[in-house]
Write a structure and sequence with these properties.
The protein is α+β, with helices and mostly antiparallel strands. The protein has 20 helices and 28 strands. An eight-stranded mixed β-sheet has the order 11-15-16-23-20-19-17-18, with helices on both faces. Strands 1, 2, 3, 7 and 8 form a five-stranded antiparallel β-sheet that branches.
Length: about 625
């Protein structure tokens, strides 16, 4: 555990102590440090009082008292029987003995394997079942803030008790905390849920379903422009775009390994009516259907959780020669995941999302250059959009886990190929065991947002296992069958998450080529409406996304409205401009760019859009 994690975990105990002092019936479950909004912690608790933001000041005041008392964090190793006795007395996870036993601690004790050391930590009158470690004393926790409260099911299971989860932040000093809180305020302004609603980019509706995005016209423009951008790059790189169904038979996913191994994160199978009718006639219990679907005795369909099995079948639909390889198949493929409702969050965690997915089938000799081509594509995407704060993570298998399938020798080859590729990027990279997909290692591009949160976006994966599972082959130069290597890659990752990060990165003020509305024409008054309409037609003829403000507002209000809507360019048209055959050009950030002929503006505008510039070219000249 790092020093920062130790401090945050200790501060969680300080907060629990304060809550227990304020509401003595409080019973606590978990209190870990987390990466939530960078440097956070939480404690799950059950109590009769419903904690609200109105209580935060009182909790912080009580925490300050605990800090001032400078209580030592004392560790004690106890036997299982002693721990059970303490939990039954109500002593663990609270301040003093209660009439009710510590039910959560008794349950957690059952999760600790026989023979494993059991420890408790005490600070003042607060005792808790805890593995630690902690800072020496509560006085070390000097800079903290209670941030929010939410509901959470015990152990994340909706069948268990619903608890109150109180979040906080903690830093080593008040200056660091103040800087972090400033970043939080900046993040609130940029929050993609807020900005997306204000700009009319997307919506959610409970009648449609949680985690299912409704892309509105303006949001669809952003999404389409990103797809056109990557599609052009794919064409240049020799990819073939394909389309595949949104569902597939369960047998397809049994072969790939996605079903039933990831059953909890998938939508329930769609069962054929004949199967249901037959089982009803046989009087089979509901649980029997699940068992038959898993074993293959019954058939059904699944909303696809991944695109790769479908692309594999496209590859397998033809005889392949080594002369045909590499085969590069790309798709903007929509996939479905059953995320828990409490984990859904705007566009960053949804139940239906689209990947800019591709699968490359190649020979062993082609693996390294194909990986480099994929990495260059991810780097081009990030560079074009001005995203330069990112790190590279090489996800490797965990040798102690049974999650990973396939020949260890193939894993070694794949991991070495990715290490070599990552080392050529001129970007620092880390190797992290346990981050590989079940079928192969991967390189992830992890982007840092405006408040330091990290989001995994682009990914490249090397896979020897799915080609083997599906029996893929090609005829080599020796006229014998060989197994291809499969590379999975997605520069954006999920379009939904990528757009969320872009909204916050640009605060909704997208570069001109990506902006839903690129130009707005502002006539000084109604008497200039006809020349404004002619200008509208001229600008629209170039393919620009342009509108005409026909309102009766004064010019100041028209400019302000365009600024609020984050329109890159405003073309002001009044008597002087009509007389001179010019337009007065304004940019949302650069301000007044002066008057110029419409043709000159459009030439500069086209150059800016076609080059996907991040800054207004007109302002630079």
């Amino acid at each position: 555990m790092s020093d920062s994690e130790r401090l945050r975990h200790s501060c969680a105990h300080v907060m629990a102590t304060a809550i227990a002092r304020l509401w003595p019936d409080a019973q606590f479950a978990y209190g870990p440090p987390i990466d939530h909004e960078v440097y956070g912690f939480y404690y799950d608790c059950e109590l009769s009082h419903r904690i609200s933001p109105d209580d935060f000041e009182a909790i912080e005041a009580e925490m300050k008292k605990v800090v001032k008392e400078n209580q030592p964090f004392e560790r004690a190793v106890v036997s299982r029987d002693e721990a059970i006795a303490l939990a039954k007395s109500g002593r663990l996870g609270g301040l003093a003995e209660r009439d009710a036993e510590s039910t959560f601690k008794l349950d957690l004790l059952e999760d600790i394997p026989e023979g494993e050391e059991i420890s408790i930590y005490k600070n003042g009158d607060f005792w808790d079942l805890c593995a630690g470690p902690h800072v020496p004393r509560t006085g070390n926790c000097k800079a903290f803030k209670v941030m929010s409260v939410a509901s959470a099911f015990y152990k994340g299971d909706a069948a268990n008790a619903q608890l109150q989860r109180v979040y906080g932040h903690c830093f080593k000093n008040k200056t660091a905390l103040a800087e972090h809180l400033e970043r939080i305020e900046e993040a609130k302004k940029r929050d993609h849920r807020k900005v997306g609603r204000e700009l009319g980019l997307f919506a959610f509706d409970d009648e449609v379903g949680q985690g299912l995005v409704l892309w509105k016209p303006k949001g669809a423009v952003v999404r389409n422009e990103l797809q056109k951008f990557i599609s052009a790059e794919l064409d240049r790189a020799g990819y073939s775009q394909v389309f595949t169904p949104h569902i597939g038979k369960l047998g397809l996913y049994r072969t790939s390994g996605h079903f039933p191994y990831y059953e909890d994160s998938q939508f329930a199978p769609i069962v054929e009516r004949e199967t249901l009718a037959q089982m009803a006639d046989e009087g089979c219990p509901c649980g029997e259907l699940s068992n038959r679907l898993k074993s293959g005795e019954a058939e059904g369909f699944l909303l696809k959780p991944m695109n790769c099995p479908h692309h594999i079948k496209i590859y397998a639909s033809e005889h392949r020669s080594y002369r045909d390889l590499p085969v590069r198949l790309a798709e903007f493929g929509t996939v479905y995941r059953w995320e828990k409702s409490g984990e859904l969050g705007g566009l960053t965690r949804v139940r239906c999302f689209t990947q800019d997915d591709a699968h490359l089938f190649c020979t062993d000799d082609q693996v390294q250059p194909e990986i480099m081509g994929c990495l260059d594509l991810v780097k081009k995407v990030l560079t074009t959009l001005g995203i330069d704060d990112y790190r590279v993570r090489v996800g490797l298998r965990d040798p102690d886990s049974s999650k990973y399938v396939g020949d260890p020798a193939n894993w070694d080859k794949a991991e070495n190929a990715l290490r070599e590729a990552a080392g050529s990027l001129d970007v620092p990279f880390t190797e992290e065991a346990g981050e590989a997909a079940f079928y192969g290692p991967k390189i992830d591009f992890v982007v840092k947002d405006v408040i330091g949160r990290e989001w995994q976006l682009g990914t490249v994966q090397v896979d020897y296992n799915l080609p083997e599972r599906f029996g893929l082959s090609y005829i080599g130069a020796d006229n014998k069958p060989h197994q291809p290597v499969m590379i999975h890659r997605a520069p954006f990752g999920s379009l939904e998450r990528f757009v969320a990060v872009l909204i916050e990165h640009f605060e909704g003020a997208f570069p001109t080529w990506l902006a839903p509305e690129q130009v707005r024409i502002l006539p000084l008054s109604d008497k200039f409406m006809d020349p404004a309409a002619a200008l509208l037609a001229e600008v629209a003829a170039t393919g620009a996304r342009v509108t005409l403000d026909r309102s009766a507002e004064k010019m100041g209000a028209k400019i302000r409205n365009a600024q609020i809507d984050k329109v890159p360019y405003m073309l002001v048209l009044g008597g002087k401009e009509v007389e001179d055959g010019t337009v007065a050009v304004r940019h949302r950030h650069a301000g007044d760019l002066g008057a110029m002929p419409a043709g000159e503006f459009l030439a500069r505008f086209r150059q800016e859009v076609e080059s996907r510039a991040l800054q207004p070219i007109a302002a630079a000249e």
